[in-house]
Amino acid sequence: MEKLIATTIFESLSSGIRLDVYRLLVRQGHTGMVAGEIATALGLPPTNMSFHLKAMAQANVVTVEQEGRYMRYRANLSLMLDLIAYLTEECCEGHPEQCLPTMPSPCSPSESTCCPKPE
């Protein structure tokens, strides 16, 4: 990951509302949510939601897919894992296995139980 991409991600999540949205979408996994559901879940006016979701989509922090007249948003989980790897790659002078817990991330791509894709 390049520094510019990491900076863009952090800028897109620097709002408390956007951070709440992202964490909600991470909990939803591959199912995602439509904008109205996100607004309701967070107790926010739906009119504000599109502004925040557009900024997050432009930063590639969330993906968006058209479903009829609605847009379904999902957290970009692979980007999140890439960011975590970028942040920790120099840990312990380039040997992160020495300083990080040895248990896998709950959203590790190799884990089949994390964020199962809808059938």
Task: Provide tags for this entry.
single chain; 119 residues; mainly alpha; three-stranded antiparallel beta sheet; 6 helices; 50% helix; 12% strand
- By DSSP, the count of extended strands is 3
The residue-averaged pLDDT reads 84
Q: According to CATH, what is the class? A: Mainly Alpha
- Radius of gyration over alpha carbons? 16 Å
At the fourth level of CATH, the homologous superfamily is Winged helix-like DNA-binding domain superfamily/Winged helix DNA-binding domain
CATH topology grouping:
Arc Repressor Mutant, subunit A
Helix content: 40-55%
Task: Note the run of SSEs as H and E.
Answer: HHEHHEEHH
Given helix and strand content, the structural type is mainly alpha
Straight-line distance between termini: 31 Å
Give the name of the CATH architecture.
Answer: Orthogonal Bundle
Q: What proportion of the residues form beta strands (DSSP E)?
A: 5-15%
Instruction: Tell me the domain tally.
Output: 1
Low-confidence stretches: none
Task: Output the strand order for the largest sheet.
Answer: 1-3-2
What is the approximate shape?
Answer: elongated
As an assembly, this protein is single chain
Main sheet characteristics: 3 strands, antiparallel
